[in-house]
Amino acid sequence: MSNKSLTNGLFGNNANKDSFLNKDAKGWYSSFQDFRLSVFSKILSRKFDKKILISPASSRTSAFPHQISTCETVVNSMNGRAILADEVGLGKTIEAGMILTEYILRKEASSVLIVVPSGLTEQWREELLDKFNISIPVVDGRVGYSLNQFLKNNSMVVTSLAYAKREGYREAFFEKKWDIVIIDEAHHLKNVNTMNYKFVKSLKAKKMLLLTATPLQNSLVELFNLVNLVSPHAINISEMSKRFSKNFNKKTIEALKSILKSLMVRSRRSDIRGVGELPPRKAETLGVSLSESYLKLYDKVSEYAVNGYKKSITNNNSSYIFYLMTLQRMLTSSKNSFVSSLKKRRKRLLEIKSNLDPSKPKEVLDFLPISKKKNNKKTLERELNLEIDAISEMLKECQGVSDVNKMDVLLMFLKNQYKKDKASKILIFTEFLKTQDSICEILKKSGFDVQVYRGGMSVGEKNEIIENFQKGQILVSTEAGSEGRNLQFANIVVNYDLPWNPMKIEQRIGRVHRLGQKKEVLIVNLIAKKTIEDHLIKILEKKLDLFKNTIGELETILGYMTSENDPESFVMEAFVDSYGKKKKLKKLDSSLTSSIKKVDESLESSFAKSGIDLRPENLNNIENIKFFNDGEIVELAFCEFLDKYNCLKDSDDFELKFTIPHFLKEGSSRFFPELIRGTFSKDIALSRTWIDYLTINHPFLTSSIKDVTDLPLSFTVLKREVLKEIGFDTSSDHCVAFFSKIKWSYKEESFEDVSLILTDSNDFLILDKIPDDLLWPAEIPCRIADNFSLEPFFQKIDSIKDAFLDKKQSVFNHLIELEDFRFNNLKLRISDAIDDYKMEFNKIHIKVMSLSKNRDMDEGQKNELTRLKKERTSILTKSSKLKKDLMKLENVRNSRGNFSVSLSADVFAVLKIHII
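Request: output the structure for the sequence above.
Response:
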């Protein structure tokens, strides 16, 4: 990762970098380094050919063929206005990130709006930063000054639909012109009469991406509404609805396909060979028996929750219902969490009671299951006393009750697992901080290597924890770890407690069971028997086959089932409905059955049966797509800038450690740690997600390029004396610099280098031989004098070929030296290994001889003697093989003779240089 080859290989061994002019005249470079930096900046800032995809090489992703195809299709065939409708789990977010990166690098997206559900704003922000080096701030109610000012200061923002559509805020989003708008979970826009739809419809967007896994859920009208957002003039909704309202036939299917094919991309797991085939996953439910005293406590809390729920439903008090659901789940998680929560609540209620102000009822009413209209002091005092007494009674009941013995079951599982596989990496999830603290404390005391991951940590802290987990054993995480983090290096998920929302369970599992996972995934559920979570898991396994299959149609099923309510509320409703009855959660069971039937009868199913295929057309011809491959130039430029600013602190073969100068940080919304760790290798970047991936769109490089863009290459000036030192003919007033990528191969190894060839020239006809996308016509004066002679033209071509031949000879000599070094090094290593085997053989042989003298060996000694003889034979076999390898190596060395080096060169940059 050094820039030695850059300094010496490209520009000769001229050490006197300061011999270039040091003047203030426009375009005169004060140092050789400024000259190089300006060249690299021009190369990396050029306008890229639209047929070349830049984002795959510039993203920390192992993009799959369907994602690359979607990106290419949307950018080059749909003009950035499309519905991305891949099935859940196939990476729509990655596709959107690649498309956005593509437009940013093409200088076609400077103002960006990303609108997502409220709970996903941070996840999107982190995903874009970690995978695409795109730093976009979140704008929400926490903005400390006017929204208009925020949008003026930040040209790219992530926000939630709930925030952006609000009166007083939406106008600011309407006023701004957006280069690209991305809407996640776009199925929330299907109804034209909602503010969701009206908000998106009113945005001024050149390009628009709608992301949804369920575009075909109910009716064609809803689908056409989405189409109308990305392409307002593509269809007449009422006309289309009438046309396609009847049963599908071949003619209408083809017509519909024609409309959608130009606006929607949809890949399905069943259609994509090798991508949908994630490793299998299996579940193991470990039942935890509750003591009689704990079951008695659980029944008492359940009665409290059911009565409170009925009052709250009558009085429309959602805050109190949320509290009851949390309390019920806490009790099956750990007694510690449950007691801690009750004590905090009782303390707060006592504070409210002592300072009761009926004129400010909101806070009081959130704590009580009564109507918000009943806010007189007498009623509030009575209800507060009832609530405080009920909590005190439950806390009293907790005394003398031992905790849920989930911890004992967990310890037993962990010990058995690490006996089977010492390298296991296990992800343990819990919803509650107090439970997390208890788990970590006991596991550490038991000798396990434990990391803790929770909300509220800085990005740096989270990255360090994930890095430690990758080296260690166990990560104990709250729900904060179930979103945004990819942990495919682990393959065991333990649900210490069970969320009531199946999607949250799937999000937990999805951290490890996702594209890139190589092993079978094991899901372990610790379930308290005779509780809600016990009944819930049985229904989910029976109806959804949740733990065996991937997410599939889960999102669609839940959409039908819950309608307006969230899944947790639906579970609570089903629990209350079945309280005191023999069959628990019957309403949930029935609703799931009904929802699954609706999915089978849905429009999506009709489409599939009709054969409508919305996959990207180039999916099977991905080899024809051209990709950006200037990675070597990026690395050279990066190292040169690090040297210029003197901010490289350390480096090795895997990563760099550097700082960023303060003036480069100005105007960036990204937080930079004091010391940045980064790599140019995608493989390393994918395995070490906590370090930066140094690509063409890394903020250090983009800011550095801006810092030198004012230096015009067309007026580069070199000293004649300097050129004489490197043997260049200086009789001309101008020369042309050809930057070429030299590729050569020796045997089965391939190499690349970048070379600079200077040729004196008034002859710019040679530019005709170079592809247009490698030139900057506006900056290269190409006028030819009337009396210009064409005679020297072919001589120039020959001289450039000669220069390449010289390069080839130097490569040949270098390879000879390299092979000598490698041969001697390999010979030494083989010889050392043979000596090691010889010593080991002698040690074992002595032990064998010693044991063989004993004629009265017991069974254990006989087995040991047999084992030692086998080991001795194995060592002898390995040693003999190494000796043969050494002989072969000597023979190859002695018969090497001549070898060939193939060489090719591509010119990738040309500039004119004045000589004075």
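The chain is about 50% helix and 15% strand.
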